[in-house]
Each structure stands twice: as C-alpha cells, then as structure tokens.
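A reminder from the course coordinator: this example appears on the midterm review sheet, so study it carefully.

Given structure:
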C-alpha cells in the first residue's frame, strides 16, 4: 500500500508543472492546485474518493503514528511533514469534516530559492544584516511567507557565523549547516508548543530565532522579550498588510497594556513585509507583490503613538514617502506593474488595498498616456514616452515562472477499481 500511495502522489505531481498543492476530499477525484485553481486528476478507480480511501492515505502519511492519530481524533486536525525519499517533501494538514477526513499537501520545492529567484524586492536581503529586533512576514495562507523566511535564513547561513534556532509546525525547508549552525525543531516531534520552544531557545545561545507563527499572547510576549535582549526574531502572521499586522500584535494583549506594548513593539520591530500572489492576465503564473514597512524614526513614532487622521499619522503615508528607505505599498507596486504592462487594470484593482484611489491614479496616467503617446511628455525635455513592454517579463521570478497546464495528462496509473487501500478503520490503531 505504501508504494501505491507514493506512486499516486508522484503521478499527481507529474500532471502539470510546478503544482503547489495536492488535495484529497471524499466524493471528489484527487485534485491539484495550479496557479491558484484546483484541477481534477483523472485516475482509474479514484473518480470519487471514498471515506476509507482518504482514511488510508491519511494513515500512510502519518506513518500510523499514534500520537498524531490521537491529536487528529481529539482536535479534528493534525499538521505534519511527509517526504518521498529522493523526490520531494510536503507540508501536510489532515482534518475531519462531516465525519470523514480530507487532506491537503503543500509541495515544498527542493532547495531554498533566493530573493532574486522569487522576484521579490532586493531590499528584503537587508533583513539578513539585522542583528536584533523583530521581523514579521505576513500574508494569507499560500502567499509564500515560509519561502521568503527560508530565503532570509539561507542568506544569513551563507554569510554569518551564527547559531540559528528554528521552531516550525512542521519543518518545511531543510537547512544544511554552512557558515552558521542551524538547529530546526518541529512542534510535536521535538517540543509541544511554540511558547515552550521559544522560552527554551533563550537558553540555547542563538543569535537568530525563527518562530513559525506568533499565534498567542505567550509566544508574542516571549518573542518581544527575545528581541529586547539582543536576538533577531523572525516570524509570520496571517494579516493582509502592515497596518493590520500592528493592530493584530497590539490586540493580542489586554487593553490596559496597549500603550506599553506599542512602545515595546515600536522600539523592537525592524521590518514588516506583507506578501500577496497576483495571477498574471494570461494565466501562465503568479507574481509575488510585497508591501514593505521599515523601522525609521517616523514609522516608530507612528507605531508608538498610533495612527491618526486628525494628526496626519498614517503608516501608509510613511511607506509612500519612504521609497528611498526601501519601503513600498501594495498599491505602489501594482501601479508600477500596470505601467510596465505586466498586469492589466482589472487584476491590479482587484488586488489593491485602496482600489478607488488606485483607479484615480490609473485614469490620470491613462489619459496623459493616450494624449501624449509618441509625443514629448511634460517635463521630459522632449523625450518620447515609452510603450510598456509587451512580454510581461519585468520583475518575474520563481513564483510566476509557471508554464500553462498541459492539455492532456499523462496516462493514469493502474490502480484497483474499488477501495485500493483496504477497509482499515483509523480507530483500530488506538487499541
């Protein structure tokens, strides 16, 4: 059975280039996610997965580990990592729904990509030069936060002789010791919680600590303490932009501690980078768009005192004015990509933070472009305005270099028609 399931996973990975996720749900054929959309993989005998089939796949992925099975039965979901030796690795979530089990496997690329390969702003490389403080990578699930963090850790590993401790749920990218020494701890296998692992890390003499996610008050409090005592702390949050990230951090703590936390966080944060993946108009891939907030005297003041329209304190304004410091907003990046012909207007507006405001800017640009196409633009000394590039290749990186889905899948593997994985009940393993 083990060989059958690994063969199934390998076949699904070969259905199309650069698949991001595999999905198994009862009543559906196996699915793969390509460019943000699910596609059915036609496989003989698996046109509609049965509860027993998804259960057996889940048991195989968990290696029949009773601790993981108990966690699944008690909490309704379990996170783990799985690998096909010599082939690929996955981040796996198994969860119950309506009395059955569903499974999502996130494909972890082999090797750690660089910031340049991902098409991200080069200013993100500067994060690796920080000596202390907090750096947060934010964005929705699947936006590439973990990959960006891995790229930063890899850069530190290549250039600094540090001790690095990572605390992950589960471990995704495997880092080899280079100039630095890296110890990677996995929730469940090595330690029961982020908070306990983070508190222990303070006694393990690291220079850099990566926390997979700042989920609760205790973890956030210890992370602040670590940053205040000279460590560089990297972590993630599921927030959509820099302002919401700060609101989330402040909101974790009791209301009567708000000013104290604002002061502590304002003095310790170094960078907040938010990511979104935006589809290319031709459907051939996705672009990684970043909003970057850097710690400066102005932004620290806005964090500590809070944003205020009345007093003219806005982090968005600070980022718009902070281009020389490497700062940018989503709307600034979307406007640039639209100017360069990489994105169409509809896509840019649909992913904008302030779509009406971006639309006004675009309409002004469009009007002047239409009137002055091929004619000297105002203030340019008679230079002709340039047509936007038509190949759409500016700032495209590993996130977007995804060829179109193949029209015809490869031949399906020969699996048995009915319940090829047997009729074993997960509860039998609890005895």
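Designed residues:
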């Amino acid at each position: 059975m083990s060989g059958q399931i690994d063969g199934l996973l390998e076949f699904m990975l070969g259905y199309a280039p650069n698949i991001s996720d595999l999905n198994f749900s009862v009543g559906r054929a196996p699915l793969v996610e390509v460019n943000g959309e699910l596609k059915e993989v036609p496989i003989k005998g698996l046109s509609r997965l049965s509860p027993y089939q998804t259960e057996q796949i889940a048991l195989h992925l968990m290696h029949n580990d009773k601790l993981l099975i108990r966690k699944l039965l008690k909490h309704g979901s379990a996170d783990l990592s799985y690998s096909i030796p010599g082939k690929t690795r996955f981040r796996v979530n198994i969860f119950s729904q309506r009395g059955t089990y569903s499974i999502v496997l996130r494909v972890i690329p082999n090797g750690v990509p660089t910031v340049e390969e991902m098409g991200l702003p080069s200013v993100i490389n500067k994060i690796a030069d920080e000596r202390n403080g907090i750096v947060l990578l934010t964005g929705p699930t699947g936006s590439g936060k973990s990959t960006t963090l891995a790229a930063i850790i890899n850069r530190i590993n290549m250039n600094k002789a540090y001790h690095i401790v990572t605390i992950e749920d589960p471990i995704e990218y495997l880092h080899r010791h280079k100039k630095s020494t890296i110890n990677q701890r996995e929730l469940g296998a090595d330690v029961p919680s982020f908070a306990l692992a983070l508190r222990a890390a303070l006694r393990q003499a690291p220079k850099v600590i990566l926390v997979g996610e700042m989920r609760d008050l205790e973890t956030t409090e210890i992370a602040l303490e670590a940053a205040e005592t000279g460590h560089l702390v990297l972590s993630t949050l599921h927030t959509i932009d820099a302002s919401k990230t700060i609101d989330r951090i402040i909101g974790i703590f009791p209301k009567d501690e708000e000013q104290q936390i604002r002061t502590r966080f304002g003095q310790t944060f170094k960078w907040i980078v938010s990511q979104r993946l935006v589809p290319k108009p031709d459907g051939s891939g996705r672009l990684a768009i970043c909003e970057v907030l850097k710690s400066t005297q102005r932004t620290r003041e806005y964090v500590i005192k809070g944003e205020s329209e009345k007093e003219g304190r806005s982090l968005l304004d600070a980022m718009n004015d902070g281009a020389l410091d490497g700062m940018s907003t989503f709307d600034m990046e979307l406007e640039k990509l639209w100017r360069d012909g990489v994105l169409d207007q509809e896509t840019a507006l649909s992913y904008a933070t302030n779509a009406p405001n971006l639309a006004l800017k675009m309409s002004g640009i469009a009007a002047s472009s239409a009137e002055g196409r091929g004619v000297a633009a105002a203030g340019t000394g008679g230079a002709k305005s340039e047509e936007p590039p038509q190949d759409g290749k500016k700032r495209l990186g590993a996130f977007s270099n995804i060829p179109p889905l193949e029209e015809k899948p490869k031949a399906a593997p020969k699996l048995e028609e009915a319940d090829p994985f047997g009729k074993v009940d997960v509860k039998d393993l609890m005895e």
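The longest strand covers residues 269-279. The longest helix spans residues 355-372.
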